[in-house]
Design brief:
It contains 15 helices and 17 strands. With 621 residues, the protein is an alpha+beta fold. β1 and β2 form a beta hairpin. The longest helix is centred in the middle third of the chain and has 68 residues.
Length: 621
């Protein structure tokens, strides 16, 4: 049975027994008190009847006649304090005619006596005279069947109270005996609990001392028995964990040395023995100095010194400290030492665990790694140099080719202009159309050549020569017809939002307009066939932002950051619908960044694309 249930049963039984015993005591006391009271009332009635028997006429009410009868009854019953005989004076008053207490004679009686006289009833009540309780019994005096007065007989309840006090004392003794019996029962019951708990404590102390072979005895199946079972299971788990840790320590590939607080070696693992070529008996119990190279590292019997020792004691550990072990053959072995302090609850050092890894292998690997990194770095430098050479060759080729193309292209364009004029005068439409195609292709080639030269100029940092302070808003307004000519007037519209304030910037106005023309041209070419292109100029603190918004296909996120680089195309190379080398936005980036601005693009789902650039605002000269 469970201990908790046993306690509940014992407590419940004791409580029920105590309640029943209390009810019995109370009922018995009340019954006893009622019996004593009833006996006094019965005696009072008997005395009244005896006195009535001696009264045959009013002449028998003489004091000397009554005195003998009254004192006889008082002598026979020591519990009677007094007997008063009260006779009426008038309808509303009774006077004490006789009393064994002389002070009561001729005194006016109370209302209870008058009520008894009128109604012929018996009244009893308990009153107090000082500290003494008194039972008053009032009964009528009968003569020839009529009530002619009253007897008031007062009984002392001292004997009743004493008897009740004795009864209470007896009951208190019974209560004490019951409680003592219950305490004794609890003591015996608790012994049955504390004894196995004490055995469990002794077993726990043995375990704390390191004896994991101790087990708690299981003598019951209650909570204490279950606790003993759980305790044994815990010990089994600890033993298993200890064996696991021992196996782990034995198998760990690094050297582990456990030191006592006096810096003597407590235990070592096989890796330590293998590393230092010692036996376990040669190391256990000796100072740790034996395994370290003598010198500055080991001084005054202390392996760790200075800041190392402070960190070890205060922080509880040190990590990756390079030191030298010394083998039994006096070989110096470089090791990386990490140490940790084990303390008790008071902060006293119990043990120091020192882990050391053989740095010889690590140093060899580190050297190999450094050599590999050196080779890789040299190969990378060669590859970068080769790329730079190829890049220079490519730029030189483009520059030379472009320069060589511009001169004949200029001559070709002049000759084609003359040829266009002659074909127009000849009146041959087909010839004029073919000459127009040749002229357009020549212009496209010239534009490509100009873009390459412009990109090269900015790459060589030659694009800032024409910068000046100007009102960007005014310049854009002056070029509105140019921007409007870039859109298809039949299907597309362009809308400008230019603030009324002046926007002063320091740049080349022609180059900035070239950037904005590129933005608007791209918005028209790559946007929806029917759309409204919006050009907004926004003041953002000390910068001015110019953005071009259009409705078109969403630009892929991975291409957003690529479109401003050289030869980058927004379209798929194999699905291109528009011509170009991919230098336009690249040149735009070079122009804006040369004036310390920023350029970028955003693609908003279901809203279109935004191309923008910002320039620092300056004060007007």
């Amino acid at each position: 049975m469970k201990v908790g249930l046993q306690f509940k049963i014992i407590g419940t039984v004791f409580l029920i027994f105590l309640i029943l015993f209390s009810l019995f005591v109370y009922t018995h006391t009340q019954k006893y008190q009622r019996l004593l009271k009833d006996s006094y009332i019965t005696e009072a009635k008997a005395i009244a009847n005896a006195l009535d028997a001696n009264i045959r006429s009013r002449a028998d009410l003489a004091r000397d006649v009554l005195e003998a009868n009254v004192y006889k009854h008082i002598w026979l019953n020591p519990n009677i304090l007094k007997i008063d005989i009260n006779l009426p004076q008038n309808d509303n008053q009774l006077m004490t005619f006789f009393s064994n207490d002389q002070t009561e004679i001729n005194a006016t009686s109370d209302a209870d006596n008058l009520q008894v006289l009128k109604e012929g009833i018996l009244i009893n009540k308990i009153t107090k005279l000082g500290d003494q309780r008194i039972l008053q019994v009032i009964t009528p005096i009968h003569l020839s069947g009529q009530s002619i007065g009253t007897y008031q007989i007062d009984f002392t309840l001292e004997n009743v109270d004493q008897a009740m006090a004795d009864e209470v004392k007896t009951m208190v003794v019974y209560y004490i005996l019951i409680i003592l019996g219950f305490v004794l029962l609890l003591f015996i019951f608790s012994k049955s609990i504390t004894r196995p708990l004490k055995d469990l404590m002794i077993t726990a102390q043995a375990l704390a001392a390191g004896n994991l072979n101790q087990r708690a005895q299981i003598k019951s199946n209650d909570e204490v028995g279950q606790l003993a079972i759980s305790f044994n299971q815990m010990v089994d788990s600890l033993l298993l964990a200890e064996k696991y840790n021992e196996n782990l320590v034995q198998a760990v590939p690094v050297s582990l040395v456990v030191l006592n607080s006096d810096m003597t070696i407590r235990s070592v693992n096989p890796s330590t023995l293998q590393l230092l070529c010692y036996t376990e008996e040669e190391l256990v119990g000796v100072k740790v100095n034996k395994i370290f190279v003598k010198g500055e590292t080991v001084k005054k019997g202390r392996v760790f010194k200075g800041e190392e020792f402070v960190n070890l004691i205060e922080k509880g550990f040190i990590k990756d400290l390079e030191m030298l072990y010394q083998s039994s053959q006096k070989e110096e072995i470089p090791v990386g030492v990490s140490a940790s302090v084990i303390k008790d609850e008071t902060g006293k050092i119990l043990n120091i665990v020192v882990a050391a890894k053989d740095m010889r292998v690590y140093k060899e690997l580190e050297q190999e790694k450094l050599e590999a990194e050196k080779i890789k770095r040299e190969e990378t430098e060669k590859y970068v140099a080769k790329l730079e050479t190829l890049e220079k060759l490519k730029d030189d080729f483009l520059n030379i080719t472009t320069h060589e193309l511009r001169t004949p292209l200029t001559s070709i364009l002049v000759m084609i202009e003359i040829l266009k004029e002659k074909t127009r005068n000849m009146g041959d439409p087909e010839m004029a159309s073919q000459v127009g195609v040749v002229f357009s292709e020549a212009q496209r080639l010239k534009k490509i050549a100009d873009q390459i030269l412009t990109a090269t100029r900015f790459e060589n940092e030659k694009g800032l020569a024409k910068s000046k302070i100007f009102d960007l808003a005014a310049v854009v307004k002056d070029h509105l017809p140019v921007f409007e000519s870039l859109v298809d007037s039949k299907y597309q519209k362009i809308k400008f939002d230019i603030p009324p304030t002046q926007l002063w910037v320091n740049a080349d106005p022609d180059q900035i307009i070239e950037v904005l023309i590129n933005f608007v041209d791209n918005a028209a070419k790559y946007g929806s066939k029917k759309q409204t292109i919006k050009v907004n100029m926004i003041v953002e603190g000390d910068k001015v932002r110019v953005e071009v918004r259009n409705r078109g296909n969403e630009i892929e996120p991975e291409k957003i950051n690529q479109i401003f680089y050289k030869f980058s195309q927004m379209e798929n190379v194999f699905l291109r619908q528009h011509e170009g080398l991919g230098l336009g936005l690249y040149i735009c980036r070079l122009i804006i960044e040369s004036y310390h601005g920023q350029i970028g693009a955003e693609s908003l789902p279901k809203e279109g694309n935004v191309f923008y650039f910002t320039l620092p605002r300056v004060k007007e000269e």
